[in-house]
């Protein structure tokens, strides 16, 4: 690339802060911006150094060893236009998707994307940025679950996948957050109060009884240890607990009551085994919310940038199609009949499994005594997985045979209902 090409001036830190330009200013060609793919060949880089003392440009040439693999770096969202000039924020053209970086939620999220034929490519395991080959304009950023929500609120990322508990705790009911898909099918749990099953709590079985205990005063409040300080304070106040002290801890909350450092805990519960093994119990009315993986986005980004809305639409279509199909089997059976209508009537009136809109009925051609004729019709229906055996029995009773069962990969509706709900929410 020629040194005389259009260049973007990059001001050294000293100049940006008002100091002297000790090392001059560098002008790089636009093709060297972050966000574009770096070349794999070791081609020379040309740039211009401005010498403030001589007041002239000096042409420089640099030979750099290129990496052995290709990678995509994040796009700059600032434009530094020249010496002593103000840094100008420029509009980001890429779509940023934030994913959890660690834990079971991270593993299950990547598994979901893979099932939806979306390949997340992270060439270096130490990197926190990746891409998806099927979505050309999307950057994937791996973040802590809490930071996924924080960066959605600030607009640093456009959409993300995270637990609903994180959205509520760190989103703090922000109207700029919109949950696009609220049931991705993994990470199911609930946030609940746990109290000891012994001592003064032995006969406490509900949140109202907990609130009515005379032990809690201004001088001796109920001590609740949790990682959910926003939700915890709000929930306890709404349920009549006036004298409460919220304590924070990073983990092993179940040990706090036994150690005497807290009276109760507020934590995520899956099966309840951990509570029971630590002599704790849930109480009626003590569940704050139910949580699982959700797909969430920045409302302003959806409203103001078409590429964000289009990407959200595609992701939503893929998620819905996969999750709908995941719970169904395709069932094919041969049935004797005089006509497709007669076979369809038997399926619709004598079974509980009509399919999505109705059964698909096709003729089965057989050769008998040298002539081809239709004695059977093949019917195709979708059946919920838990009800498969009931469907097979009903099909046999209706005259079906040769029943074939296959897993489904995707079911694409005419329009994804959640996409229409998202558009309605954006208009509100």
Automatic annotation (TrEMBL):
EC number: 2.4.2.17
ATP phosphoribosyltransferase catalytic domain ranges (all copies): 144-317
Amino-acid biosynthesis found in the keyword field: yes
Cross-referenced InterPro entries: ATP-PRT_HisG_long, ATP_PRibTrfase_cat, ATP_PRibTrfase_CS, ATP_PRibTrfase_HisG, HisG_C, N-reg_PII-like_a/b, N-reg_PII/ATP_PRibTrfase_C
Biochemical pathway: Amino-acid biosynthesis; L-histidine biosynthesis; L-histidine from 5-phospho-alpha-D-ribose 1-diphosphate: step 1/9
Entries under NCBIfam families matching the protein: hisG, HisG_C-term
Name used for this protein in its record: ATP phosphoribosyltransferase
Organism for this UniProt entry: Sphagnum jensenii
């Amino acid at each position: 690339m020629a040194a005389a090409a259009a260049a973007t001036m990059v001001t050294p830190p000293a100049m940006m802060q008002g100091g002297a330009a000790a090392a001059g200013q560098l002008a790089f060609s636009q093709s060297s911006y972050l966000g574009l793919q770096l070349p794999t060949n070791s081609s020379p880089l040309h740039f211009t150094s401005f010498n403030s003392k001589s007041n002239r440009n000096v042409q420089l040439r640099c030979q750099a060893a290129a990496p052995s693999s290709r990678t995509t770096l994040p796009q700059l969202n600032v434009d530094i236009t020249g010496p002593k000039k103000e840094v100008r924020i420029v509009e980001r053209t890429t779509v940023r998707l934030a994913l959890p970086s660690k834990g079971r939620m991270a593993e299950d999220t990547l598994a979901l994307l893979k099932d939806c034929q979306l390949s997340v490519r992270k060439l270096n395991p130490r990197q926190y940025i990746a891409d998806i080959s099927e979505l050309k304009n999307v950057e994937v950023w791996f973040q802590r679950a809490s930071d996924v929500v924080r960066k959605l609120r600030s607009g640093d990322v456009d959409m993300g996948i995270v637990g609903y508990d994180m959205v509520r705790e760190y989103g703090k009911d922000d109207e700029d957050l919109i949950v696009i898909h609220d049931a991705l099918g993994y990470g199911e749990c609930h946030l609940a109060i746990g109290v000891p099953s012994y001592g003064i709590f032995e006969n406490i079985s509900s949140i109202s009884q907990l609130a009515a205990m005379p032990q809690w005063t201004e001088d001796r409040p109920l001590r609740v240890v949790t990682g959910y300080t926003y939700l915890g304070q709000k929930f306890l106040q709404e349920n009549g607990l006036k004298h409460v002290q919220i304590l924070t801890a990073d983990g092993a909350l179940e040990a706090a009551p036994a150690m005497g450092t807290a009276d109760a805990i507020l934590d995520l519960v899956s099966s309840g085994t951990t509570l029971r093994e630590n002599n704790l119990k849930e109480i009626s009315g003590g569940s704050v919310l139910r949580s699982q993986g959700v797909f969430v986005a920045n409302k302003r980004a959806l409203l103001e940038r078409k590429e964000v809305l289009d990407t959200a639409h595609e992701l939503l279509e893929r998620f819905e199609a996969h999750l709908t199909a995941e719970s169904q089997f395709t069932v094919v059976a041969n049935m004797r009949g005089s006509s497709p209508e007669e076979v369809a009537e038997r399926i619709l009136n004598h079974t509980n499994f009509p399919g999505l809109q109705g059964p698909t009925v096709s003729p089965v051609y057989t050769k008998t005594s040298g002539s081809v004729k239709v004695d059977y019709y093949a019917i195709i229906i979708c059946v919920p997985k838990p009800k498969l055996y009931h469907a097979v029995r009903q099909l046999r009773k209706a005259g079906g045979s040769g029943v074939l069962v296959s897993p489904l990969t995707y079911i694409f509706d005419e329009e994804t209902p959640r996409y229409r709900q998202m558009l309605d929410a954006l208009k509100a």
